[in-house]
């Protein structure tokens, strides 16, 4: 029986470093190749040694597919392709292909330039890696090779996010990446057709949550920002440069416009304008409303939102700052956070999920004292030359708010996607084990649901139908017997010969099979003699036999042929008298091997009866 | 409900005779598929131009009266420079609507935005309930072109609708080319915006290489054709037949994604339309001439008028000018693009990264706009206006270059510039669109002083390219408009300007109905796993195995599956013999056909093993006869047959049968 195997190397019962291996129909596919924001050591990247202990991955993988540009889905890609070694095709959508290298470069800079790590991928490696990328269009069927085909669907998580349908023969798997089932201010909702995959691999970030309406969350968010501004406080919103940032910018921009607010809104890093350019050029990936009106008004040209300069952080008075990265694990958002954390008038709003180990995760769990590593430059350092990392304790006094704006499907959304795709099995990844259990329980009421840990393989047995080419003559003969559509209540049996030659399977009538294979038919016949006493002439005897059989064998075709034979179906009966005694007749019954269920005795019994 | 159709016939109904504005209907398996619905707009050349502002010249043209004075149509027909024009809202020649019932069309496949302009005539008021398939750029730009057409017509409403001239008796007496116009009664005015919206609401978007199933019987898939943004060829196939529809394709590297040629391979039938209308004009040469004539006129202080469509070649012209402007020191010359959809067309061109050639895609990744006209606009070198009214009239500076429609010169803002600039020989009109004869287009403006330059740019396949392509993809049969099977009338010696193929292409003309040659012999059926697992294959020849199959056939939505035969219910407790005698038994698998021969020595050895030792062998002409003396039984062994003559001894017969079968192959 064919099997499909799924092994997460990352994102198994966890969020971060998404990387899932799928083996289907003899093909091996890697889905996503992400990094983990919670770790700075080996655990940062998926454990590729699972695939092979020595050497390159090219021979072991047929293709790599990246679902979207978030680093926890693509952050390990240059490491995998350039440092471990992979030269096969990497697939991603156009927006992902455009944006992914920028975020990778950003990640590299923070890691190498700021934290001073060595043995990390270089800018050149990012470029070389991107050369291996083949862009995917939505709904296009891409033939990776003769047997493996993939098709991307809109996922609505960030610009260019895609779900992917992977198919070999009649077996298939859908991988969702991250997705969102409700349209928001700039993206549409995820959609997939009823493709009935053998396995649906779904993210489950919000597996236990059924979120209240988006409007409530937006109102709450705006209220909190507004209140802080009113009391002269500063609002820090850690975001990733692309994605929620644009959503929240649109939200604040419209609010500022409506309320005629004057407090400045800043967006950190020079990426803003560039980021917005991507949204403008890939406008076909945004939601219906933005697409329809983009000629008149481009939603990504902001009036109130200005570029941030590091010096502004010390300016007096209220302000709102969007700063990267989103989980407060490094970079500008962390720097600003450190500056503002001591003032209870200020506020930090975490608009998305934070993985374990990040500052974002810690403060969301109520930690108010944070131990920080600082490459100290301050006066507290006694010996300026000491190569020491200082432990600084940071008191968190500012208000910490969490507002779930990440565009992930919640429990309801996940169930919705299941209804759309109608999978036979479900695998949950990209979520926390405890939360997954809850959803698993719900799903298992309907079908099998798995939640493998990293390095753990689950196996699903598939039962594919076998496609065969049936000769039109045979099919027509079948149709002719029962009208245009066979009656489902009276199934009829069709018989034929299946010819298996190389990769082709042909179903033809037995006669045609003989012809096609250039074989002669071998006739196997049987003849049996039966004696009986009858005083009539031979023809009369034959006629008597005919009448008799007619009366006892109902439902059979019985014919009296002019050449002096009687045929019961295809059994031939002849009569001759014995030379010595004309009253003793010899019946010759002759039939071929193909005659159905004939036993000579039936007929002779029939003749002897009465 | 859709009945399963196993008929082999595939037919093609040809509703348009225009080779580049095709409209064909393919009946394939149980589906009716319209391939494009091009609108033949050359009919508008018979009409008088629609001026945006009152034109004293046009209003003073004399009416037409027949020479003998018997027919007076001075209200409907006007004479200009020896030609007669209809003074009425221009009308279009529609695809044939009588050849088949348009309400039976299941789907319409659109190949590019120029080939969909008749869509509202097909989908509205005809009972059409199907789906239209097109790519996103085709839909968006097609919508702009329709919107522009409607706008051109509606902003200069004409009360009069001329119909008298269409009377057969009268038309006969008119001078050419009106006299020779065909089917004039079926010509129609332009549709409304409401009809456009309704028609376009029926469009379902598709991407290149997307596979769309129609009723489970047919799969369609668009392929990049390299001609314009989102332009496609189509594959229409079942598991065993493949029709390729090639329409408006290009192998030149301009802005669209390159043509996908390899997917056209293995076609049973290839329908070929939309070849270049200018087979002797090289697009690059024309582009060069365009630039040099433009520069010459501007330097001499004249204006340049470029009648054009609002999307397509104009993007390439602007890109070419972007590089040319500085070197030709035209940096201060204003370039104007005037169309109700000018802004939208320029904006839309920048957002279709997926549909562009590789170079342009790379620019988007930076992120920069793929077309340099963004920079021309930013630096104020190119300005666009919805019409000559409003801002344009106050900002307009001469000498300048104006791009505007419609290329027929019968409506749109171009009519105004013809009236304005036609009298001066300093000015130049440069024709770049190949759809209209420039002499016919200019006829109602004669006499003209302005210079005319004809640089038609048609990037579609020429005959040389298409022969090469066909050699490569090797379709079994080619179907094409009859125009492609002979050299053009004006160049009858140019046998290189026609398709020469073996077997010769099947030509069509307006109203043809062709039966396409298919030798369909197979259909796809799926064997369910349970049945598949129960099959017992045996090797017949090296690498070839066979298995006999007995199964129940289920057919639903044109999909066939084979299932195991359900086990018969247990026999009722009646006397077995009686049941067997009086009813035909439940049909179980029949015995297979046999093949091979029974070898004498080996067979005798086998008999011996089974205790049959007294065998007398007699040689005959065709083989041997074996007498099984103890059993009083004969076995006749021949090359292609075995005959067992055995009296009422069922167990023996069964044993012998099985021994014989050991040596034979079962099919």
Automatic annotation (TrEMBL), chain A:
Its main location: cytoplasm. Its cofactor is Zn(2+). Transmembrane segments: none annotated. It comes from the Eukaryota. SMART domains: Beta-Casp, Lactamase_B. Keywords: Cytoplasm, Hydrolase, Metal-binding, Nucleus, Zinc. One of its GO terms (biological process) is snRNA processing. Pfam families: Beta-Casp, IntS11_C, Lactamase_B_6, RMMBL. It is found in: Cytoplasm; Nucleus. GO terms for cellular component: cytoplasm; nucleus. CDD domains: INTS11-like_MBL-fold. InterPro entries: Beta_Casp, INTS11-like_MBL-fold, IntS11_C, MBL, Metallo-B-lactamas, RibonucZ/Hydroxyglut_hydro, RMMBL. Residues 16-210 form the Metallo-beta-lactamase domain. Residues 245-363 form the Beta-Casp domain. GO terms for molecular function: hydrolase activity; metal ion binding; RNA endonuclease activity. The keyword Metal-binding applies. The keyword Transport does not apply. PANTHER family: CLEAVAGE AND POLYADENYLATION SPECIFICITY FACTOR FAMILY MEMBER, INTEGRATOR COMPLEX SUBUNIT 11. Belongs to the metallo-beta-lactamase superfamily. RNA-metabolizing metallo-beta-lactamase-like family. INTS11 subfamily. This is Integrator complex subunit 11. It comes from Lates calcarifer (Barramundi).
From TrEMBL, chain B:
InterPro entries: Beta_Casp, Integrator_9su, IntS9-like_C, Metallo-B-lactamas, RibonucZ/Hydroxyglut_hydro. Residues 557-580 are annotated as: Disordered. It is found in: Cytoplasm; Nucleus. One of its GO terms (biological process) is regulation of cellular response to growth factor stimulus. Its main location: cytoplasm. Keywords: Cytoplasm, Nucleus. Residues 314-442 form the Beta-Casp domain. It comes from the Eukaryota. The keyword Cell division does not apply. Gene3D superfamilies: 3.40.50.10890, Ribonuclease Z/Hydroxyacylglutathione hydrolase-like (3.60.15.10). GO terms for cellular component: cytosol; INTAC complex; integrator complex. Belongs to the metallo-beta-lactamase superfamily. RNA-metabolizing metallo-beta-lactamase-like family. INTS9 subfamily. This is Integrator complex subunit 9. It comes from Lates calcarifer.
């Amino acid at each position: 029986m064919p099997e499909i195997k799924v092994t997460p190397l990352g994102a198994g019962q966890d969020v971060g470093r998404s990387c899932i291996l799928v083996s289907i129909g003899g093909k091996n596919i890697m889905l996503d190749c992400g990094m983990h924001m919670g770790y700075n050591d080996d655990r940062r990247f998926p454990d590729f040694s699972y695939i092979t202990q020595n050497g390159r991955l090219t021979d072991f993988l047929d293709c790599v597919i990246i679902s979207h540009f978030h680093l926890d889905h693509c952050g390990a890609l240059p490491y995998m392709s350039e440092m471990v070694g992979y030269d096969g095709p990497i697939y991603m959508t156009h927006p992902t292909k455009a944006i992914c290298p920028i975020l990778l470069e950003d990640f590299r800079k923070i890691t190498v330039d700021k934290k001073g790590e060595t043995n990390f991928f270089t800018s050149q490696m990012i470029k070389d890696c991107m050369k291996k990328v083949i862009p995917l269009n939505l709904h296009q069927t891409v033939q990776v090779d003769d047997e493996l085909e993939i098709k991307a669907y809109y996922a609505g998580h960030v610009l260019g996010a895609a779900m992917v349908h992977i198919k070999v023969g009649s077996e298939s798997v859908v991988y969702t990446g991250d997705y969102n089932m409700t349209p928001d201010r700039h993206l549409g909702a995820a959609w997939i057709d009823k493709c009935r995959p053998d396995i649906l691999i779904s993210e489950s970030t919000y597996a236990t949550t059924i979120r209240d309406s988006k409007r409530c969350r937006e109102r709450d968010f705006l209220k909190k920002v507004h209140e802080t501004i009113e009391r002269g406080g500063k609002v820090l919103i850690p975001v990733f440069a692309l994605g929620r940032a644009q959503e929240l910018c649109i939200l604040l921009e419209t609010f500022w416009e409506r309320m005629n607010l004057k407090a400045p809104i800043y967006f950190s890093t020079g990426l803003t304008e560039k980021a917005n350019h991507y949204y403008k050029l890939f406008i076909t990936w945004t939601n219906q409303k933005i697409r329809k009106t983009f000629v008149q008004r481009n939603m990504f040209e902001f009036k109130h939102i200005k570029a941030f300069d590091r010096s502004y952080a010390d300016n007096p008075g209220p302000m709102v700052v969007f700063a990267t990265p989103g989980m407060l694990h490094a970079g500008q958002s962390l720097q600003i956070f450190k500056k503002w954390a001591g003032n209870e008038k200020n506020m930090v709003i975490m608009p998305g999920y934070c993985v374990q180990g990040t500052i974002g995760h810690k403060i969301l769990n109520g930690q108010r004292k944070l131990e920080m590593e600082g490459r100290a430059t301050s006066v507290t350092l006694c010996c300026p030359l000491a190569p020491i990392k200082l432990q600084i304790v940071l008191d968190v006094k500012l208000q910490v708010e969490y507002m779930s704006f990440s565009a992930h499907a919640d429990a309801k959304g996940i169930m919705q996607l299941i209804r759309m795709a109608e999978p036979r099995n479900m695998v949950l990844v990209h979520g926390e084990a405890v939360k997954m259990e809850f959803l698993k329980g719900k799903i298992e009421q309907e079908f099998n649901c798995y939640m493998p840990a990293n390095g753990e393989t689950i196996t699903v047995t598939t039962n594919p139908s076998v496609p065969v080419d049936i000769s039109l003559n045979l099919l027509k003969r079948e149709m002719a017997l029962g009208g245009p559509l066979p009656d489902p209540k009276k199934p009829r049996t069709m018989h034929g010969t299946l010819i298996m030659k190389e990769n082709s399977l042909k179903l033809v009538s037995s006669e045609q099979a003989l012809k096609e294979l250039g074989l002669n038919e071998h006739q196997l016949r049987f003849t049996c003699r039966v004696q009986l006493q009858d005083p009539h002439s031979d023809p009369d005897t034959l006629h008597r036999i005919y009448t008799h059989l007619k009366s006892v064998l109902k439902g059979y075709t019985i014919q009296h042929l002019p050449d002096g034979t009687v045929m019961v179906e295809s059994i031939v009966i002849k009569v001759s008298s014995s030379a010595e005694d004309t009253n003793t007749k010899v019946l010759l019954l002759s039939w071929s091997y193909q005659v159905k269920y004939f036993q000579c005795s039936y007929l002779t019994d029939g003749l002897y009866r009465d | 409900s859709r009945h399963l159709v196993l008929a082999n016939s595939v037919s093609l109904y040809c509703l348009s005779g225009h080779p580049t504005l095709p409209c064909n209907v393919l009946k394939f398996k149980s589906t009716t598929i319209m391939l494009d619905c091009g609108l033949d707009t050359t009919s508008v050349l018979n009409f008088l131009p629609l001026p945006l502002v009152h034109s004293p010249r046009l209003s003073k043209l004399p009416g037409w009266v027949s020479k003998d004075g018997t027919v007076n149509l001075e209200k409907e027909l006007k004479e200009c420079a020896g030609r007669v024009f209809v003074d009425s809202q221009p009308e279009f020649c529609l695809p044939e609507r009588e050849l088949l019932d348009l309400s039976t069309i299941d789907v319409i496949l659109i190949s590019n935005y120029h080939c969909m302009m008749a869509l509202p005539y097909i989908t509205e008021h005809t009972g059409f309930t199907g789906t239209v398939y097109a790519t996103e750029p085709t839909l968006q730009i097609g919508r702009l072109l329709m919107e522009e057409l409607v706008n051109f017509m509606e902003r200069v409403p004409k009360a009069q609708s001329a119909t008298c001239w269409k009377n057969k008796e009268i038309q006969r007496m008119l001078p050419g080319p009106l006299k020779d116009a065909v089917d004039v009664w079926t010509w129609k005015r332009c549709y409304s915006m409401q009809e456009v919206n309704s028609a376009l609401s029926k469009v379902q978007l598709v991407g290149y290489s997307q596979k769309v199933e129609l009723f489970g019987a047919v799969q369609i898939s668009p392929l990049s054709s390299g001609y314009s943004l989102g332009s496609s060829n189509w594959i229409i196939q079942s598991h065993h037949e493949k029709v390729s529809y090639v329409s408006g394709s290009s192998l030149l590297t301009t802005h669209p994604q390159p043509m996908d040629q390899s997917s056209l391979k293995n076609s049973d039938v290839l329908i070929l339309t939309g070849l270049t209308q200018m087979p002797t004009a090289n697009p690059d040469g024309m582009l060069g001439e365009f630039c040099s004539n433009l520069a010459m006129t501007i330097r001499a202080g004249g204006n340049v008028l470029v009648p054009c469509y609002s999307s397509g070649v104009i993007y390439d012209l602007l890109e070419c000018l972007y590089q040319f402007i500085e070197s030709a020191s035209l940096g201060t010359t204003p370039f104007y693009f005037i169309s109700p959809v000018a802004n939208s067309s320029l904006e839309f061109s920048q957002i279709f990264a997926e549909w562009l050639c590789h170079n342009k895609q790379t620019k988007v990744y930076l992120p920069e706009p793929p077309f340099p006209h963004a920079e021309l606009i930013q630096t104020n070198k190119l300005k666009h206006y919805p019409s000559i009214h409003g801002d344009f009239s106050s900002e307009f500076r001469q000498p300048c270059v104006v791009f505007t429609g419609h290329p027929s010169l019968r409506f749109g803002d171009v009519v105004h510039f013809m009236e304005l600039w036609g009298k001066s020989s300093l000015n130049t009109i440069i024709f770049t669109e190949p759809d209209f004869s420039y002499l016919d287009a200019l006829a109602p403006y004669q006499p003209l002083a302005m210079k005319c330059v004809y640089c038609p740019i048609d990037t579609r396949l020429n005959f040389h390219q298409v022969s090469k392509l066909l050699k490569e993809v090797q379709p079994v049969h080619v179907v094409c408009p009859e125009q492609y099977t002979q050299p053009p009338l004006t160049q009858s010696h140019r046998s290189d300007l026609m398709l020469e193929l073996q077997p010769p292409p099947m030509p069509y003309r307006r109203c043809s109905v062709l039966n396409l040659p298919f030798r369909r012999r197979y259909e796809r059926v799926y064997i369910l796993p349970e049945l598949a697992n129960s099959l017992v294959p045996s090797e017949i020849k090296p690498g070839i195995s066979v298995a006999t199959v007995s199964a129940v056939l289920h057919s639903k939505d044109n999909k066939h599956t084979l299932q195991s035969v359900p086990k018969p219910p247990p026999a009722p407790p009646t006397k077995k013999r009686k049941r067997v005698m009086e009813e035909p038994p439940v049909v179980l698998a029949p015995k297979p056909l046999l093949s091979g021969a029974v070898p004498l020595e080996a067979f005798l050895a086998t008999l011996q093993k089974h205790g049959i030792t007294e065998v007398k062998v007699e040689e005959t002409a065709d083989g041997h006869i074996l007498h099984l003396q103890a059993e009083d039984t004969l076995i006749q062994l021949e090359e292609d047959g075995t005959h067992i003559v055995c009296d009422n001894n069922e167990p023996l017969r069964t044993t012998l049968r099985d021994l014989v079968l050991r040596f034979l192959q079962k099919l």
